[in-house]
From TrEMBL:
This is Pyruvate dehydrogenase E1 component subunit alpha. The keyword Hydrolase does not apply. It catalyses: N(6)-[(R)-lipoyl]-L-lysyl-[protein] + pyruvate + H(+) = N(6)-[(R)-S(8)-acetyldihydrolipoyl]-L-lysyl-[protein] + CO2. It comes from Mesobacillus persicus. Signal peptide: none annotated. Its cofactor is thiamine diphosphate. It comes from the Bacteria.
């Protein structure tokens, strides 16, 4: 029997429609949790908008904006337990903040400070991975160690739709499926890999259906619906803890440029952004909270002001942090420094070749 392309039917999970109306089953989330989800999205967007401005002012380095993807990142990270691990790409500031990384630490990363690229403050967040797709293999390795040590942690690899065209992604799914590792591959399908649209990344109707080739579970969720993402991720994590890896495709949209070195107006068609702005995740959740009677415009203004103050304070701390020195790089290569590395570090320090 021939297996024809795209025979698999994938239904997208959705709880709120584009106007914030409840159309699916309400997840098991109380009012305090609903407010926390929205406040984290506000914080993530506020940080993102400020970081973009700071880069344009030359005060931080290249930055990859996440505006429009707040629901996908916050909803997924909010479902994690403290012992779970995040293996991020370079656009996961929202997920990283929710899982415990401080804003000042992320600012240090954008400034090229060596401590900004390390797991800080005891959080289970691996250093940002720049090589496309490599974090999937790291997550699988971590999950394998967790299974070997009989731990209850799940390793979550965050990746974009473009990254699913990399070999590392497919190798990671294959290993996870064969060895039944506690892994969740969270794909943020934001429609664009720099200037390449999703339609040129893959011929499959969905990314979620790729899971079937590796013997793991796949599911597609509305990535601009934070409640749908949260409930879907909770179930994905439950399955992963039982040794059943999951591929989650969160359908969302990158409202800004790929990075601050990109100009999306060169390749996006007129009107595309406006169509997705109508599906904005913050706008949708805000409408739901107001309809529920637990939010209003006054609270909205206070929350954005509070978020702005937090970002300002975080940047001031990062900006006042002494610059890292090249000699410190040697301290982050191995857990136990080999003698040859120690000699190299000492020679640089003594000769004063670099700062």
């Amino acid at each position: 029997m021939w297996l024809e392309p795209n025979e698999t039917i994938v239904n997208k999970v959705q709880v709120l429609d584009e106007t914030g109306k409840l159309i699916g089953s309400h997840p098991d989330v109380n009012d305090d949790e609903l407010l926390a989800l929205y406040k984290w999205m506000v914080q993530a967007r506020t940080f993102d908008q400020r970081a973009l401005k700071l880069q344009r002012q030359g005060r931080i380095g290249t930055y990859a904006p996440m505006i429009g993807q707040e629901a996908a990142q916050v909803g997924s990270a909010f479902a994690l337990k403290k012992q779970d691990w995040i293996y991020p790409s370079y656009r996961e500031v929202g997920a990283c903040l929710v899982h415990g990384v401080s804003m000042e630490n992320f600012f240090l990363y954008t400034m090229g400070h060596i401590k900004g690229g390390t797991s800080a403050q005891g959080t289970n967040v691996f250093p940002v991975q720049i090589i496309i797709g490599a974090q999937c293999l790291h997550a699988v390795g971590s999950a394998w160690a967790s299974k070997y040590k009989d731990e209850s942690s799940v390793s979550v690899a965050y990746i974009g739709d473009g990254g699913t065209s990399q070999g590392d992604f497919h190798e990671a799914l294959n290993f996870a499926g064969v060895y039944k590792l506690p892994t969740v591959f969270f794909v943020q399908n934001n429609q664009w890999a720099i200037s390449v649209p999703r339609s040129k990344q893959t011929a499959s109707a969905t990314i979620a259906q790729k899971a079937a080739a590796y013997g793991i579970t796949g599911i597609q969720v509305d990535g601009n619906d934070v409640l749908a993402v949260y409930s879907t991720m909770k179930e994905a994590l439950r399955r992963a803890r039982e040794g059943k890896p999951v591929l989650v495709e969160a359908v969302t949209y990158r409202q800004g440029p790929h990075t601050t070195a990109d100009d999306p107006t060169k390749y996006r068609q007129n009107g595309e952004l406006e169509q997705w702005l109508a599906k904005d995740p913050l706008k949708r959740m805000k409408a739901f909270l107001i309809e529920r009677g637990i939010w209003n415009e006054e609270l909205e203004q206070v929350e954005f002001e509070t978020a702005n103050d937090k970002v300002t304070k975080a940047f001031e701390i990062a900006a006042s942090t002494p610059s890292s020195k090249t000699v410190e790089v040697f301290d982050f290569v191995y857990e136990q420094k080999p003698s040859q590395l120690a000699e190299q570090q000492n020679s640089i320090q003594v000769e004063g070749v670099v700062k």
